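Lab meeting, item 3. Inverse folding demo.
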């Protein structure tokens, strides 16, 4: 039995939901922040550049890409370079042919400061942080095979969840990525299409579910709003945290059914029990 059959349990409680802030709370919070500038979101130390980024320079520099060996197809980080000696250098999931996307890449491991930053983004809705983290995807984007002229689309939240949160973290990441590509004149025909994928059914959170339960949980959950937008195109799906790839596979299945030629997946972080978060 491989590790992917084990139950995947991460430190966030299974049904954790941040309370939705009321307008009044947000307004008050905004005023409070203007009068008493808050510290770094990750280490709480006072920020040297008030009004600038909400993560201090030291914490930001602690967010690093994964540069070690990884699965050729889904980007799963390997603990040793020896895994790459095999003929196809694929992980267990990809060997079993369980992934519906063509290729997936991730920026870094879901540990340390990257994990903390994603949790801040997910539960506190930091727009600027979303754009800044999305910009990190630029390099991983270029590591995808032939990403030129691709349609970039985020993994959507269910409309009820989006309303509750007031934002969609993958949407912010996708915008951050496209902004970065545009700023550096590297767009090469890439288009952002935010509403391309729709989540047509609400699901229980994937946290705490086994790999097969995850797959079952998201089966048939996504649909494509405008199939003509993706037909015969390369689509890059943006996700915050990839674990087994079940969500991205479900997105890819819907896109391919709608006629997409290729589906590439890009996640900010990859969670794997082989690289647990040390806190
Ligand atoms: Zn800090
Ligand atoms: Zn793989």
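The presenter then showed the designed sequence:
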């Amino acid at each position: 039995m491989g590790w992917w059959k084990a139950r995947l349990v991460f430190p966030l409680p299974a049904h954790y939901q941040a309370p939705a802030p009321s307008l009044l709370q947000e307004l008050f919070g905004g005023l409070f922040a203007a009068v008493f500038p808050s510290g770094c979101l990750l280490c709480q130390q006072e920020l040297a550049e008030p009004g600038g980024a909400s993560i201090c320079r030291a914490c930001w520099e602690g967010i690093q890409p994964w540069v070690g060996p990884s699965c050729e197809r889904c980007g799963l980080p390997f603990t040793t370079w020896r895994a790459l000696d095999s003929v196809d250098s694929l992980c267990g999931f990809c060997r079993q042919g369980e992934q519906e996307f063509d290729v997936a890449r991730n920026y870094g491991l879901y540990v340390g400061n990257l994990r903390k930053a994603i949790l801040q983004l997910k539960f506190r809705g930091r727009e600027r942080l979303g754009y800044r983290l999305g910009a990190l995807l630029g390099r991983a984007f270029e590591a995808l095979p032939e990403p030129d002229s691709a349609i970039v689309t985020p993994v959507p939240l269910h409309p009820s969840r989006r309303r509750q949160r007031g934002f969609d973290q993958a949407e912010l990441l996708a915008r951050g990525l496209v902004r970065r590509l545009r700023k550096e004149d590297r767009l090469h025909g890439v288009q952002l299409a935010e509403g391309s994928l729709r989540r047509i059914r609400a699901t229980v959170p994937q946290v705490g579910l086994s790999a097969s339960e995850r797959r079952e949980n998201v089966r048939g959950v996504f649909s494509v709003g405008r199939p003509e937008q993706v037909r015969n195109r390369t689509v890059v799906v943006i996700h915050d945290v990839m674990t087994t790839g079940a969500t991205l596979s479900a997105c890819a299945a819907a896109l391919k059914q709608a006629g997409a030629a290729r589906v590439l997946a890009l996640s900010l972080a990859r969670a794997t029990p082989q690289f647990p978060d040390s806190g």
